[in-house]
Amino acid sequence: MLAYLAGLSPVKTALWCYLIWYLNVLSLYFDPSPQTWITALGIAAIVGTANNLNALSGRQNGQGFDPWMGLRFFLAPFCVASFAAMVKGRGFILVFPPTLAENLRGLIGCLLFVALALAARRFHPAES
User: Fold this and answer.
1) CB-based burial label for 7 (10 Å; 0-12, 13-18, 19+)
2) Which stretches are transmembrane (predicted)?
């Protein structure tokens, strides 16, 4: 795990922070309604398939398919759809919860993750 964190690119670090923010909001505003999650799964299936087809059509011959990228193409629309359903009518401004404490909780989670990745990079330098 240390090697993984040490090798994280800035883009993947940002993606992890998005997930941390989503999980923070999920823990605070979880909606137990099956309809929310079924709808999110349906949107993820439709949009994720389209995203994967688009990515596959742009591949050059011999390029392999990255299964983690494929998973992210499904995960992103699932998170967006469920996030929108969870926060509707809850006083959010864009993606920011209505209270400072809730925002700080998400921000601190992201900052701790970035600090962990930077520490891993320092103590486990990339192999050349």
Assistant:
1) middle
2) 12-30, 36-56, 68-86, 106-123
Whether residue 61 is predicted with pLDDT greater than 80 in this model: the reply is no
Q: What is the pTM of this model?
A: 0.86
Model pLDDT for residues 80-118, shown as the tens digit of each residue = 999 999 999 999 999 999 999 999 999 999 999 999 999
**Looking at the domain assignment, is residue 43 inside a domain?**
yes
Instruction: With respect to residue 128, please indicate whether it lies within any of the assigned structural domains.
Output: no
Residue 128's pLDDT is 42
> Does residue 95 contact residue 88 with C-beta atoms inside 8 Å?
no
CA dist 111 and 37 (Å) reads 29
Query: How many domains in the chain?
Result: 1
Dihedral over Cα of 48, 51, 56, 57: its sign: positive
Determine the Cα–Cα distance for residues 22 and 72; give it in Å rounded to an integer.
14
Tell me what pLDDT residue 44 has: 98
Phi (first) and psi of residue 93, to 5 degrees: -110, 110
Between 63 and 69, name the one with better pLDDT: 69
At 69 the pLDDT is 87
